[in-house]
Amino acid sequence: MVASARVQKLVRRYKLAIATALAILLLQGLVVWSFSGLEEDEPGEKGRQRKPRPLDPGEGSKDTDSSAGRRSSAGKRHGRWRGRAESPGVPVAKVVRAVTSRQRASRRVPPAPPPEAPGRQNLSGAAAGEALMGAAGFPPHGDTGSVEGAPQPTDNSFTPKCEIVGKDALSALARASTKQCQQEIANVVCLHQAGSLMPKAVPRHCQLPGKMSPGIQWEETRAQQPVGGPPVRIAYMLVVHGRAIRQLKRLLKAVYHEQHFFYIHVDKRSNYLYREVVELAQHYDNVRVTPWRMVTIWGGASLLRMYLRSMKDLLEIPGWAWDFFINLSATDYPTRTNEELVAFLSKNRDKNFLKSHGRDNSRFIKKQGLDRLFHECDSHMWRLGERQIPAGIVVDGGSDWFVLTRSFVEYVVYTDDPLVAQLRQFYTYTLLPAESFFHTVLENSPACESLVDNNLRVTNWNRKLGCKCQYKHIVDWCGCSPNDFKPQDFLRLQQVSRPTFFARKFESTVNQEVLEILDFHLYGSYPPSTPALKAYWENTYDVADGPGGLSDVLLTAYTAFARLSLRHAATAVPPQATALCRFEPRGLPSSVHLYFYDDHFQGYLVTQAVQPSAQGPAETLEMWLMPQGSLKLLGRNDQASRLQSLEVGTEWDPKERLFRNFGGLLGPLDEPVAMQRWARGPNLTATVVWIDPTYVVATSYDITVDADTEVTQYKPPLSRPLRPGAWTVRLLQFWEPLGETRFLVLPLTFNRKLPLRKDDASWLHAGPPHNEYMEQSFQGLSGILNLPQPETMEEAAKRHTELTGPALEAWTDGELSSFWSVAGLCAIGPSACPSLELCRLTSWSSLSPDPKSELGPVKADGRLR
């Protein structure tokens, strides 16, 4: 009683202090909740089930060529923000304290100016502009992870020089992963808040009022008229990334002429492609590769800087007297011949061809985000707040694919005109700057009358599929991307209402048939006996890249593929040849290719150095592993006949509606997606059930399929690790089966690129704790589904968690052999095994002839094709 009375007395005495403390805690909790809301994924992505929204097939949009979509939530975190013991810059906690201490609606980061470091530049006003742009008007060269020319940090501590205000800027600071990027963001924001970053007004030199956007119609009779003066020469700027060297060679073969020039920039992250392109360029005097490389992200300011630097190079290469600059990517392809293009440009040698957005400027500015401040660092475009468009000019934009005259390129590169210098400053902090910079410079320059509103391209836009905010992991905005052309789109390539000479996009891993049709339309067919016209190979791993580019799943699969193939080589020959055909792998595979035929994935081609068990020199073999189909269509009624396929995989591409992980290789830590394709028919509701290898019902959910729905897909938020082994996904209607498929969660033999240890295997291969893949248990469905009791399988699964070394490899190989088979083996050089054919003599090997992608010597007419 005495203690209770004392407590009551203390509560009465400090009631006000306690209430104040509780209020502060509540306010801090609200702010922390607000910041966590900024960093969460989109609603419905995690933590609960939802019915998938069917993807509309959609028709091609008649909208602009601009790839900007709509504004994305700047605060939405793509990948969780993880606290660190030594958080770089201003940690989220400090930001929260700054907000709660002031109890203000606007969020701020207080300045904490350190002593001025020796040699430190205080970037402000004109000095900031000079430091940003450099003496020649180009930003100084530096690390390609950031936009060179941005205010750079001078030490490793994050010390903003001003009180940072605004949700966008604070969100960017909280999400940036490095101190350097945080410091850059802070410097940019402070300069902008001080009014010394952006030009207030820009001079306009065009004497014509308003926006200039005349067009030129295609006239077949005029196109065939003779050209006056010498034919123009073209400098092609090829901007490439990825690993599709064969498609790049096919493009180069189609556009090549000895009178033109080809300058190739390979993204700094694409080392395999760079090595291949460098080797290619050695065979042609008019093909060169940039001696420097940048990381050019979608929508980033680095892309514009890459173009400006490339233009300067092209103007200064001795002997390259070109008249027009044309930029291409590896996913472009010509739709008319070189002769037609040269004739057209020769008749319009004073014109610049750029495609405008085709809508009112105010709407374009909002949709393109030109009224927002952006900064690129950490290979991400961060939205930092609002800004004003400079007064005095007409802002325009559209497509970042263009055809420019040499005189205009010289003006952009060399002029000291304030129009160009200030627009460079403005577009250094602009989203998708290459889609607007050249348009705006030209329309406000003395050469404004040279503009033609046509970039001479056909782009396969389908906004319903292409505008899925698929770039939100690298830019704080919703962007769009064109779809790949397919044979049914060929009529669009033949439009004649305006002059067009190129089209995009084409991807041979998606559809190669349309390239065959277009190639035949331009140049005629190859001889009937030409090999590999329907085949396509694309490298996915090369030993020179090192194992760092491989995930543990791929490393496990590729090494297991080699073991399976070598075992097959020893057992698929007569007994007297067995000793000669028994090999042991030496190290990791040296290369892996994806193999397609007739636009269908045929499997992996694994190249492996081996040592014969019998005495003999080391050999190198290539092995073809083909996937085995596991789909069963079980329905018998009209509604069930709608189901065309059922697949499970990762790397789902909503634009092309396919899995980019073509082989479907996945491991315990992956997040698989179930996808269904449907024919048109009556509406239906189907139930999807996921069953793990021990007959545990992992999850179940319903999908609604409308009459015109073609594709449905959903990624259930399963707890990980997934149990390794053969999983089953069943599709039912009123609990009657429509179809089912099996997929493999691969037991890993590697973890962090090293052989799996027992303590890692014990949790990585054990499945989720208590077999709970979801918060809700679905095991009650096992009776309806007629599943066996899981006890026996669970005991075997428990034993598997203890496996390492050869025993683990045997388990992995056994699981893999249920889904993959050895379709072929060949030897790269002479082999002691009599059953092995030379790879170059096969039709499937990556070393077999591929004339459509082989360049060869220049012909008498100056061409390669």
TrEMBL record:
Residues 519-699 form the Xylosyltransferase C-terminal domain. Its EC number is 2.4.2.26. GO terms for cellular component: extracellular space; Golgi membrane. GO terms for molecular function: magnesium ion binding; manganese ion binding; protein xylosyltransferase activity. The keyword Metal-binding applies. It catalyses: UDP-alpha-D-xylose + L-seryl-[protein] = 3-O-(beta-D-xylosyl)-L-seryl-[protein] + UDP + H(+). Its cofactor is Mn(2+); Mg(2+). It is an enzyme of class 2 (transferase). It is a single-pass type II membrane protein. Its main location: Golgi. Residues 73-82 have a biased composition (Basic residues). Residues 53-65 have a biased composition (Basic and acidic residues). InterPro entries: Glyco_trans_14 (IPR003406), XYLT (IPR043538), XylT_C (IPR024448). It is found in: Golgi apparatus membrane; Secreted. Keywords: Disulfide bond, Glycoprotein, Glycosyltransferase, Golgi apparatus, Magnesium, Manganese, Membrane, Metal-binding, Secreted, Signal-anchor, Transferase, Transmembrane, Transmembrane helix. GO terms for biological process: chondroitin sulfate proteoglycan biosynthetic process; glycosaminoglycan biosynthetic process; heparan sulfate proteoglycan biosynthetic process; heparin proteoglycan biosynthetic process. Residues 39-158 are annotated as: Disordered. Residues 125-137 have a biased composition (Low complexity). Pathway: Glycan metabolism; heparan sulfate biosynthesis; Glycan metabolism; chondroitin sulfate biosynthesis. Transmembrane segments: none annotated. Monomer. Belongs to the glycosyltransferase 14 family. XylT subfamily. Catalyzes the first step in the biosynthesis of chondroitin sulfate, heparan sulfate and dermatan sulfate proteoglycans, such as DCN. Transfers D-xylose from UDP-D-xylose to specific serine residues of the core protein. This is Xylosyltransferase 2.
